[in-house]
């Protein structure tokens, strides 16, 4: 089982703080496709190329694999000054 957390504007746009679902074995890219298919409202935001994904608090590439128990965070790019 995996916990997927949504942060900042992404959380607001999806109207969801987190989901608990088994996505072990998927890559980050496959996870995006999977979530986009689960909810039509989410499609635009989840597939946005600027959305960052972290696995266990480490930024992950599109081909990174998710294992059982991994915590996944999705968030928009952070800017600051």
TrEMBL record:
InterPro entries: Beta-grasp_dom_sf, MOCS2A, Mopterin_synth/thiamin_S_b, ThiS/MoaD-like. One of its GO terms (molecular function) is nucleotide binding. GO terms for biological process: Mo-molybdopterin cofactor biosynthetic process. Keywords: Nucleotide-binding. GO terms for cellular component: molybdopterin adenylyltransferase complex. Belongs to the MoaD family. This is Molybdopterin synthase sulfur carrier subunit.
